[in-house]
Amino acid sequence: MDHKQKIELITEACTLIFNLKKIDCEDGYFHFDLDCVSSGEFLGFNSKTFFCSFSINDFERLIQYIDTHCQILLEGDGWYESPVYVPTDFDLQIQCFDGEIVNYQDGCLSIRILFNCGPPNEGQSNAYIGFESVIDVINLREFRDDIATLVGHP
Questions:
Q1: What is the domain extent for residue 71?
Q2: Distance between CA 41 and CA 38 in Å, rounded?
Q3: What CATH number has the domain bearing residue 34?
Q4: Assuming Cys at both sites, which of 28, 79, 124, 140 could form a disulfide with 56, CB separation 3.0 to 4.6 Å?
Q5: Using an 8 Å Cβ cutoff, are 33 and 49 in contact?
């Protein structure tokens, strides 16, 4: 496995930087500090660092999620909403929405990313904060390919 130390997901509103902190080979988990860095006209929003973990299975499901969503948009009319993707530890949520994809180098779609901030008080449900933005398909595919390289997926 290639252990790239940093994987980026670049959207119009911000860049998510997954900084690999530890690989737990025994459990098959990858542990990241996740920096959410605002860009462009969104620089006024506070950047924040979150922690997240993904199992190899979580990454395999995310690769399939991205592949399936892009393929549906390539074949369809652009009006499609995928179900929410959530890794095993519920550290974040990703949802892809409608868009227009001509090919894997040309097109864009909407994406929503929410971060688990934990419960506001003991005994309460977790709270999620995040953003919705447009992402170029080429940036989404680069993110997908970096994940595939990390876990040794073709």
A1: 6-151
A2: 8
A3: 2.30.31
A4: 28
A5: yes
